[in-house]
Amino acid sequence: MMIRVEIHTDGGCKGNPGPGAWAFVLEQNGDVVERAGAEASTTNNRMELCAVIAALQEARKRDASKISVHTDSQYVQKGIEEWIHKWVRNGWKTASNRPVKNRDLWQSLHELDQLLHPAWIWVRGHAGNEGNERCHRLVQEAIADLEDGNPFS
């Protein structure tokens, strides 16, 4: 039986670096799972990556066989579909021979991508996409909770 999963993700920071959060919404057969996490000092790109990694880990628990990941981050979408192949070949160095930023997260994402083979779909942020808008609200709530002294990660 094919288990289809639709994932929407978002990450963000207040300042960059600064307090940040990530969130995902995972839909499977009408079942919706929402998760979010926050960090006191991080970057927007790290939070975008954390959102996708957490979502794919959840999809893996569900034995999903067809996964679509919707992200508003071209950094994530282009990174996993285009850039990562060169980074791996170059020993995790960029074209300018510098270490790849967020290598730890990229390595985790690369492993999940190789295992699950999701479809990567870029969506325009803040353009009315319901899943993206929901994730954005969850990110903002998580940052506000963190700033109010109520972290949950």
Structure explained in plain terms:
The chain is 43% helix and 28% strand. The chain is of the alpha/beta class. It has a single domain, classed as Nucleotidyltransferase, domain 5 (2-Layer Sandwich), CATH 3.30.420.10. Strands 3-2-1-4-5 form a 5-stranded mixed beta sheet, with helices on both faces. Strand 2 and strand 3 (31-42) form a beta hairpin. Helix 1 runs parallel beside helix 3.
| CATH topology description | Nucleotidyltransferase, domain 5
Number of domains: 1
Describe the strand arrangement of the main beta sheet, using strand numbers. 3-2-1-4-5
Major sheet summary line: 5 strands, mixed
Gyration radius, rounded: 15 Å
CATH architecture designation: 2-Layer Sandwich
Q: What's the average pLDDT? A: 94
Question: In the CATH hierarchy, what is the superfamily?
Answer: Ribonuclease H-like superfamily/Ribonuclease H
What best-fitting shape do the alpha-carbon axes yield?
globular
Task: Provide a compact summary of the structure.
With 153 residues, this protein is of the alpha/beta class.
List the topology elements:
Elements: E1 4-13, E2 18-28, E3 31-42, H1 44-61, E4 66-71, H2 74-89, H3 103-116, E5 119-122, H4 130-147
List keywords for this structure.
4 helices; about 150 residues; Nucleotidyltransferase, domain 5; about 30% strand; alpha/beta; five-stranded mixed sheet
